From TrEMBL, chain A:
UniProt-listed Gene3D superfamilies: Luciferase-like domain (3.20.20.30)
Binding site for FMN: D57, T101, S240
Family: Belongs to the NtaA/SnaA/DszA monooxygenase family.
Keyword hit for Oxidoreductase: yes
Keyword hit for Zinc: no
A GO MF label: oxidoreductase activity, acting on paired donors, with incorporation or reduction of molecular oxygen
Name of this chain's protein: Alkanesulfonate monooxygenase SsuD/methylene tetrahydromethanopterin reductase-like flavin-dependent oxidoreductase (Luciferase family)
Domain Luciferase-like: 33-343
Annotated InterPro entries: Diverse_substr_monoxygenases, Luciferase-like_dom, Luciferase-like_sf, NTA_MOA
Keyword annotations from UniProtKB, A to Z: Flavoprotein, FMN, Monooxygenase, Oxidoreductase
Pfam families assigned to the protein according to its UniProt record, in alphabetical order: Bac_luciferase
From TrEMBL, chain B:
One Pfam entry name: Bac_luciferase
Record flagged with keyword Ribonucleoprotein: no
One of the record's GO molecular function terms: monooxygenase activity
Top-level taxon of origin: Bacteria
NCBIfam families reported for this sequence: FMN_nitrolo
Domain Luciferase-like: from-to ranges: 24-390
Record-listed FMN binding positions: T94, Y148, S219
Family statement drawn from the similarity comment of this UniProt entry: Belongs to the NtaA/SnaA/DszA monooxygenase family.
UniProt keywords, alphabetically: Flavoprotein, FMN, Monooxygenase, Oxidoreductase
Protein name: FMN-dependent oxidoreductase (Nitrilotriacetate monooxygenase family)
Organism name: Micromonospora violae
Amino acid sequence: MTEKTLHLAVALDGLGWHPAAWRLSRADATALLTARYWNTLAGEAERGALDLLTIEDSLGLQTSGPDGPDGRLDQVRGRLDAVQIAARLAPLTRHIGLIPTTSTTHTEPFHVSSAVATLDHVSGGRAGWRPRVSATHAEAGHFGRRDIPPLDLSRLDEPETVQLVGDLFAEAGDAVEVVRRLWDSWQDDAVIRDVPTGRFVDRERLHYIDFTGQWFSVKGPTIVPRSPQGQPVVAALAHSSVPYAFAARHADIVFVTPVDTEHVAAIVAEVRAAEETVGRTDAPLRVLADLVVLLDETPTLARRRRTRLDELHGEEFTSDAATFAGTPGQLADLLADWHRAGVDGFRLRPAVLPNDLTAITRVVVPALRDRGLFRAGYPGGTLRDLLGLPRPASRYAVAATA
Amino acid sequence: MPKQVILAAHFPGVNNTTVWSDPASGSQIDFSSFVHLARTAERGKFDFLFLAEGLRLREQRGRIHDLDVVGRPDTLTVLAALAAVTTHLGLAGTLNTTFREPYELARQLASLDHLSGGRAAWNVVTTSDAFTGENFRRGGYLDRALRYERAAEFVRTARELWESWPAEAIVGDRDGGRYIAEASPGAFAHRGDQFDIAGHFTVPRSPQVHPVILQAGDSPDGREFAVSSADAIFSRHGTLEAGQEFYRDVKARLARYGRQPDDLKIIPGVTFVLGETDAEAQERAHHIRRQQVSPQTAILLLEQLWNRDLSGYDPEGPLPAEDPDVSGDAISRGRAGMHPDPVDTARQWRALAEEKGLGIRDLIIEVTGRQSFVGTAQQVAERMNHFVQSDAADGFILVPHLTPGGLDEFVDQVVPLLQERGVFRADYTGTTLRDHLGLGPARPVTEAGAM
């Protein structure tokens, strides 16, 4: 193998990322409410030896508009809690990383910390977390604790919006900081079960985190003993400078959305610059490029399927990430190009589930292996091991011995 | 046909009833422990598995409590994972309403109900504890008097959300291009004293529609909350007579809410100790009590009543002569108060210790003992059935003292005897927890009267 192998992830959402996916999916329309559907997807992803899967989530109903329901009848609506899905998948998978999405705006950091650490325990060290800012009026209305004005895409550059987004990301940063401190708040060896002294834990190895920030404060320690990875893997989706900085400060993986090879190089440069600017000392971000994929046996068939989906949708599908429609071989070539341009790997978003996932695992993966770009199987170990990320020591243990 | 016994299993939690020092005690954290207990319960055809919850580590004398099991995994996450390794067992978790919001919790519970095929249950608890609140955005803001008000409105709001998707909302008509039948599925608006929220719920109707609601408080407010809002209630009434009195009282209150006596199950939490002979069981019970109340634990439990630092006292020596401190802050935090009148309780304990010649540790063992069913498997099966047939309970939540194997002998020895008597199922006849409990379909919130 002459080149470093790449990391490969799959993003799961509904019946696929194309809004008309449910019209052509092999799965039935209500499948996404069943455990069997998710088990099938995870099993398929693991068959392809993919590094990890992510599960999208939101505290509002899916919509094609910027904020609030769009009144459409022709798209998938309704979904389950992503952490619950990930936990349901954990005992039935063995190797693949499981990364659910939660809100940093409305969900309590203490609850998230417990849930993701527990996901790490029940999966034997395969948990991750994708923190996500909830910037919509609709989601805020479900909680009634704060007002967020309706999101207007034509006013994104106005000072109030810039300020709001800045605040939401700063709060998200505090939330991740708290979650990570809580993950560290039990040292690995805190449970001592010392019968002679009658002590179950050594309280000197449990730590208050005493976080006080602009938006909230949290005392700690967590209720969950330190998990197999110590720190589950934190992943962030980022499209611009504010989230790049957020990822550089707080995440282990960043999902980015280049449109072509030149853009790949530019984004990677921007991410590395952000790491420098924030003074990152952890392992460099693993940069994975997002790509919506629609695969078929010939370029013509793939194009035709894309056209068919767009017709069913009523307009051309566009997304924050670029869309690829072609053969698995063409996709493998493109991934190799982008990989050379500097990304560590990819998070593929299947246009139709499970159809395009199956094409990834059964055809794209072998094609990447033929090119020497992907592992033959799972080497064993935790998600951190798989990603080449070191297992961090508890910051409090380090402080105690320093 | 005799009344059928309800059986549930509690995963041994973070208090001194859980014996961690025994060589047979395994991990409290490893998922394999939860799998073992859940599979044992399902092998025994139990109604459900029950997990408690903690949101802050307990403290005593300003330091984290270190003598009992400390720490546990997140309740909902474990239950969702257990759904993957069980097929029929109900999955019940304690989830505090004070530091959660209805939209999010209703969503999680509905998701668990979908992912388990209709086996989710929620034990609704409240706290006004600012100590616990220090881990949350909201802090300890809630006035004690508002606890059940918030809880009742919380449950009502959750029910509104669970009902917000009509059963036929998803049509999935591929040819006609209609995924949903209406433009605004999940629409809701709740305006109340505690919650003012509106929008769209994201989880379509789940198999049970309303996951089973459990309630665990015994105050008059708690009882009223249970009869208005719950499907089952945990109680702690040790004797047959106390159980019967509680049972009569609670079941009689149901009519005012338009509910039948069978609509609310009474399921006390109980312990059990089995032996080949009664004498052997008694001896094991005593041994377990000594494991549960170590010398250090005896002093700590005494401090919780006295509300003073008693670390200088000899665990085998006499009780303190001074009275409990009722003036200052609680010495123990993160633990529910157990003694309404500490000075009077202390007086009773002193009298008991003197009468029986007990030192601190033996006194604590005597006064905190709640070993409900001790005897041979035959005796335990008979007594449990007697409790149920004479309306002191509808069934039991068994609290083993060992993790994870503490339920094994009960399932192997006692369950077959209950089955022989025709008072416990030989196999599951339904698939949802509501089926197991004989609750019937969820009653729509719109018909639920004065909830």
